[in-house]
Amino acid sequence: MGLNMRACHTDQCIVFIPFAGGSSHAFSVLQGLLSPTVESIGIHYSGRYQGELAASPTTVDQMADEVIERLQKVEAKRLTLFGYSLGALVAYEVAQRREALPCAIEQLVVAACRPPHLFSCHGVQVHAEDDDFLHSVATFGTIPEYLFSHPAARKYLLPNLKNDFRAASTYRHSPRPPLDMPVTAIAGTEDSFAPFHDVQGWRQYSDAAYAEHCLPGQHFFFENNNDRLTGILLDTLAA
Fold first, then answer.
1. What is 2-120+178-238's CATH number?
2. Which of 75-84, 108-117, 217-226 shows the highest mean pLDDT?
3. In what order do the strands lie in the sheet with 183-188?
């Protein structure tokens, strides 16, 4: 597992936890737009890149364990977790285990993801052959089109994508007390995998402040909304 870190001049840090198949570079544009005074970390899991010998995590719990292991080495004192799609579930599980960290998790930002009690991979053929799997995922607009047309990209990215969807499909929510930190939920107006009316269910996961935003686009709405997401994150840090 690795980190992609920018320079920091404060004790605040935003931790970016990617969607299925994503890496530490998934939100590099968004990270670049953040104020240089805000540290940002992009996370990837073991086995994410070719040549790594470590096995990839196969469950959401294992992903959360890896994030916690890396965050134990971060010097920032105040963390904001930003999880996108599958990364939102991982971020939530990390927040639930925040006592394992030497720093404080102050806020949870979740995007493009149903809350844990509503999360489902129904319709995704996680154990099918590659083409059937890709077509089932593509119905939700949750993969880039080039995976169908570029053999090299497919060979490189598909194993991670399948591994992560299999991990997501085994996730089962265990009811726990609401978090004592602010939660911000963000959805895409045309996201069929995580529609806004479901994403609003994150409201019940916090006893503190709750905010929600709906931005134009499908599942990967962040690609065309980096400026607006930057504003949301900076406002969240300032709250």
1. 3.40.50.1820
2. 108-117
3. 2-5, 39-44, 12-17, 78-84, 104-111, 183-188, 210-215
